[in-house]
Amino acid sequence: QVQLVESGGGSVEAGGSLRLSCAASGFTYSPKHAAWFRQAPGKEREGVAVIYRNSGYTYYSDSVKGRFTISQDNAKNTVYLQMNSLKPEDTAMYYCAAGTSFSGSVWAFERYNAWGQGTQVTVSS
């Protein structure tokens, strides 16, 4: 059974940092890429960062570029999201996702076969 478990969320003041982790287990196939998405109350889920497992290529949304860094430890089947210079508008539930499809946009939900339950990030001003 595929399982993605996020951790590392919490509350922080604006300008602070947090590091999210996503531990994967139970895969019967090798995911090709992993991503972090987020969803704030009353808003649609949006893509934040993507990393390709083999090449290490990364993509970031414009809203987090230069502040967030996605990385991976393939030996540990873990993906990380280092979040610096956090802003109140970064407040959201953050979800980890993994998938095998390369069809369409890197932000397309259809690319991802597995999703975690989410970890809450709250940034106060």
Q: What structural category characterises the helix and strand content?
A: mainly beta
What percent strand? Answer: over 45%
Topology as a string of helices (H) and strands (E): EEEEEEEEEEE
Treating each run of at least 4 consecutive H or I residues as one helix, how many helices? 0
Number of strands: 11
Radius of gyration, in Å, reads: 14 Å
Helix content: under 10%
Report the sheet with the most strands, covering strand number, pairing sense and barrel closure.
7 strands, mixed
Average per-residue pLDDT, rounded, comes to 95
Large-scale geometry: globular
Give unreliable regions as ranges: none
Q: Cα distance, first to last residue?
A: 40 Å
